[in-house]
Amino acid sequence: MMQFDDLNGKAALVTGASGGLGQHFAELLASHGVAVTLAARRREALEEACARIAAAGGTARAIQMDVSDGGSVAAALSGANFDILVNNAGISGASRALDLEEAEWDRVLDTNLKGVFVVAQAVARGMKASGRGGAIVNIASILGHRVAGNLSAYAASKAGVIQLTKALALEWAREGIRVNALCPGYIETDINRDFFASAAGLDLIKRIPQRRLGRPQELDGALLLLASAAGSYITGSSIEVDGGHLVSSL
Ligand SMILES: NC(=O)c1ccc[n+]([C@@H]2O[C@H](COP(=O)([O-])OP(=O)(O)OC[C@H]3O[C@@H](n4cnc5c(N)ncnc54)[C@H](OP(=O)(O)O)[C@@H]3O)[C@@H](O)[C@H]2O)c1
Question: Could you read off the pLDDT of 112-122 as tens digits, one per residue?
């Protein structure tokens, strides 16, 4: 029997799928027979990702959407009918708290926290209307649990995502909707590869108990668990996948 075979024939929305982890999650779900909708702001990058998924035998379509703009989300997701949502779109921003400008705070919180809420709400309305329920996986971060310098807005937004996950799980359990968070540690992607090759990056890696970065594929087990029937009794939880970073010695 194929593992996670209940995923075959399901429909998923993955936000922030024009690159990085979101694109990886879309490809992963498509490889398990899920029809995936890839959302982000950069249409061309989305179309390229969809073409790659189609070439590998999957089913994918793109929708342009800015998760920080409730109007954009409502227009893109009216009548949404998905079984799975991976709420992955996110930005980091790095400023010292004393220099952090209100506009930057708003940009990070609007994308990472309000964006997760408005997309979850639109998709959950469809899940309720279908009567089939569904699974929502919010991509938070180990910075939702602990802190690092110059990332106050990001850390606050990700802590908010973890708490929001629990609140939505409580309200939507009766609709058959499970809501969980996945908290990655430092995962190597194209965006951060150069930083992790620098002296500061190598120093940071020394503080991870496993002494290395994670690979995107090392998130697959947790993502598939939370998205599939294998996780049917898991809701309101968060799973950390971080090489032990959260338990590093104080
Ligand atoms: N990589 C890591 O080590 C790591 C660790 C912990 C948590 N995470 C979390 O994992 C998620 C993905 O991170 P990543 O490393 O893959 O980052 P990334 O490569 O920068 O990708 C971010 C994605 O989010 C999209 N996005 C940003 N703002 C958006 C908006 N307003 N509306 C719609 N889409 C938007 C971007 O697409 P467009 O620019 O086309 O809109 C892009 O597809 C984030 O939530 C991040 O906080 C990552």
Answer: 999 999 999 99
